[in-house]
Amino acid sequence: MGKVRFPLVGDLYLILVLDDHSRFILSGAFFFRQFKLNVFLVLYRAFMRLGIPQGILSDRGSQFKAHHRYGEADYQWYAKKLGIELIYANRAQTKGKIERLFRFIQRDFVMENLHLTSLEAINEGFQKWVEIYNFYHSNKALDRECAAGEYTPSLRKLTSEELEFILVHEEPRKVLKTGSITYYGQYYKVPDE
Questions:
Q1: Cα 43 vs. chain centroid, distance in angstroms?
Q2: What percent of the chain has pLDDT over 70?
Q3: Residue 125: what are its φ and ψ, rounded to 5°?
Q4: Domain range summary for the chain, segments of one domain joined by +
Q5: Each residue's pLDDT tens digit, 5-42
Q6: Is there a contact between 153 and 46 (Cβ–Cβ < 8 Å)?
Q7: Which one, of 26, 73, 43, lies nearest residue 163 by Cα?
Q8: Whole-angstrom Cα distance, residue 67 to residue 57?
Q9: How many CB atoms lie within 10 A of CB 28?
Q10: 99 and 89 in contact (C-beta within 8 Å)?
Q11: Is this model's pTM higher than 0.90 or not?
């Protein structure tokens, strides 16, 4: 979700994972920045709690899809390692569910919590709000059912260590004059571009 202003904390961004079918919120948190590491942290929490999905729908933002001929975005690489099919929204209507949810969060959560004084308090309050939304909020599109009644967790699971190594492990490296990098003692050629 775009920038949200909490007067006593500052500008924050909400990163959220939503099940497209049931509208069940798998994971979400507010952050000061939209760093890709924050996206992977939210994905890690969702995958640890509820398993690894068969596919993920996203837009074509630079954090989700490489816009050049060579290479791939980190998100694409991680999805491939986890066996997740990447589906990109081609029409604005495809993203309508999450956009409507963002507007609802603005009205129902943000406006009621402008008095909070720390990022921790905001995220703690948001986690409580998510539980209420998932298990008690009736949705018109779901014939007045709550999201939890329609959601089915994935049976594909990894251990915390396996998932953490794939999603959170980061190794700084430099491109050598020979046009290659080293990673754990292995040399890899980098495309000339």
A1: 5
A2: 80
A3: -65, -40
A4: 4-189
A5: 999 999 999 999 888 888 899 999 999 988 878 888 88
A6: no
A7: 43
A8: 17
A9: 21
A10: no
A11: no
Sheet of 25-31: strands edge to edge? 4-6, 10-18, 25-31
> How many Cα atoms occupy the beta-carbon half-sphere of 179 within 13 Å?
5
Q: Residue for token digits 């933002």?
A: 61
The count of residues in the chain is: 193
HEC assignment per residue over 64-123: CCCCCCCCCCHHHHHHHHHCCEEEECCCHHHHHHHHHHHHHHHHHHHCCCCCCCCHHHHH
Instruction: Select from 80, 53, 32, 76 the least CA-distant residue to 154.
Output: 53
pLDDT classification of 151: cutoffs 50, 70, 90: confident
Q: Please give the CATH number for the structural domain made up of 4-189.
A: 3.30.420.10
What lies within 8 Å, CB to CB, of 105 at 6+ separation is 1, 14
